[in-house]
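Hi there,

I know you've been waiting on this one. I reran it after we fixed the sequence typo, so this is the corrected version. Both the input and the resulting structure follow.
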Amino acid sequence: MLLRFFLFVALVFSTSLLAAPATFDRAKIEARQFIYHDRNQQGDFYCGCNWEWVGRSGGRIDLKSCGYQVRAQQTRAERIEWEHVVPASNFGRARQCWQNGGRKNCNDTDPVFNAMEADLHNLTPAIGEVNADRSNFNFTMLSNAKPQHGQCPVKIDFSARAAEPRDAIKGQIARIYFYMHDRYDLNMSRQQQQLLMAWDKQFPVTEWERERDKRIAKRMGHSNPFVTGERTWSLGHKNRAEGVVTQLPSRQTQQTPSVPSSPPIKANKNSRVYHLPAGCPGYQQISPANTIEFKTEHEAIAAGFRKAGNCR
């Protein structure tokens, strides 16, 4: 009996270690601890600047290491920030929660958005000022533009709301875009597809990109198949949408009379544990203030919750 107990504890512990981060704040901490812990002297994403780690997830940039010149924001230029390569506002707009209250509402109500926001495959360390200047601009080619941050090669056209990254990361950006759009069923314009397909071919997967993918897979539980070669992107790609557990309702669905649904799964947002309506003694014991409801166990697990250990 005692052996069975220890085996159960070991299983729960090992499963929790492999659970994907449930929030953006947690993802930033894990990105530092498990993905980029030994990469701060290898250069940030956009400029190739080195940094020293500060706090749980931040860093102080060595501007001289890459010839960086501050354009406008001294404070943000001196710190590492975690950049969503596919901007949060871009994938947020694909969710109904964004239409009903923006990012905060999505964080409060939509587990799929939280999964996208915390997806380590889409996070990279970048100089804060460049993160701010890039904003949610599309990537493109800017042949007539000049770098605006000293020797940092990133180009940004504020009037056109467009950015061109350095060659060293163009292929990686393409494969991150393919992954996010495929996994979370996002739309991509034909023009953007064509550009990223060209970058994917011109700048193949690097040794670090493969290593990064392996490290992230240990935390997320899955690789980026466009890095491993399991999938390729072609024009008009049909998304797999494995990461979407709640689809946006269509107009037709919204007009269909509702039918009685089964009781929801209840989760405690503090303990990150969920309870089934049948077989789980704690189902009725969660404080309403700490309760989050899910339609399915899959949805709860995708949001980073685990099943209560006393469920029968």
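Quick highlight: Confidence is low (pLDDT under 50) at residues 1-17, 247-260.

Best,
R. S.
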